[in-house]
Amino acid sequence: MKNLLYRILSIVKVVALIVLVLVLNVMPVLASAMQRRVGGPIFVWYALALVVQLVSLVLLYRLYRKQEPSLLPTYSWKGLDWRLIGLAVILMRVWAVIGTQLVRFLLHQASTANDQAIMGFLSQANNQVLVFYTLFTISILGPIIEELVFRGFLLHYWFKKPFGWIPMCVSSLIFAIPHVTHLLEIIVYFPLGIILYRVFERRRNLHNSIMTHVMNNSFVSVLFLLLYLAGQL
What's the pTM? Predict the structure, then answer.
């Protein structure tokens, strides 16, 4: 009975964390919507949203480090495996291109719904601060929070042994689901989740997968920014 209750509680914890990820990732959208609905200086709403994101990130980071100190060591930022990270980023970008082409062929759409939503929001942004805040969330805050949840807490709560084929496939699938609106779009995000998992597994250090995710998303954010500045969104 205790074992069953523990498993149910573990599922509830992960689901709650995933919901938190989704909310924190759309804070720029929520801040913009609240300003239109309630009124007040838009920059105040941006500041409040950013504070919520940063506080949540710090709390999650500290909690995971307390629970898994060996997988998130204090001084590991200085010992990042840059060769591994660089290779993983290249693989992620290559697969993103291949996956996008598959989506175009199978679903007859220019890109994934996730990318289309981002580009649509940026094209309608009424000030550059919102654009930069959104891209900052995409490139820095989002990846850190997602790694803490999908490669961190999920594996901690659901698996006694977090490294292996089953944890890799389960965590990568759970990572992919919130990024898609059509089932076939999983072919893009599931392999990306596997790459991030393998980076984490290789050195048993979550900082490596965090940096890989940050660099991958930063590359995409730069492309979005260039498109925005060129007026092509």
Answer: 0.93
